Amino acid sequence: DPPTRAVTLTVNGTARTVHVAPWVSLLDTLRDHLDLTGSKKGCDHGQCGACTVICNGQRILSCLTLAVMQDGAEITTIEGIGAEGKLHPLQEAFIAYDAFQCGYCTPGQICSSIAMIEAGHGNTREEVKDLMSGNLCRCGANTNIIDAIMAVKDGAHE
Ligand code: FES
Ligand code: FES
């Protein structure tokens, strides 16, 4: 067996300890060790944004960081967005504005845009476009995604 290390992450509000090899990405840790498969593996190389999660308040590409580097971190994944039986305003806006088709990019889009909004960034449509450019959508829903984010920013869905 490969050598493993204990890593404790607070994931969606719950402390979880996993034993992972030092080269295992945060994305694989979430998906394979914690059964949180909402974060998607599109490219595994930092190029698509499908794996975006919120780590200590900032959006990160979970395929590009190792679990051992995040020991002690607070992670929010798409599973932790919204409350039981109640969608987050951004999730509602994604539905209202038709901001997904296959849905593969959606968890990353939502985590990315929530962290962007909470950081107070993306105050114009151009800025939102720019700041969301790391989250690709192969289905071409980008315009609707920006519409949904702008609706939340403008308070239409709060
Ligand atoms: Fe991480 Fe594509 S899977 S950026
Ligand atoms: Fe299919 Fe974005 S909805 S990749």
Automatic annotation (TrEMBL):
2Fe-2S ferredoxin-type domain residues: 5-81
CDD domains documented for this protein: fer2 (cd00207)
SUPFAM superfamilies: 2Fe-2S ferredoxin-like, CO dehydrogenase ISP C-domain like
Pfam family, one: Fer2
GO molecular function, one term: carboxylate reductase activity
Keywords: Iron, Metal-binding, Oxidoreductase
Domain of life per record: Bacteria
EC number of the protein: 1.2.99.6
Protein name stated in the entry: Aldehyde oxidoreductase iron-sulfur-binding subunit PaoA
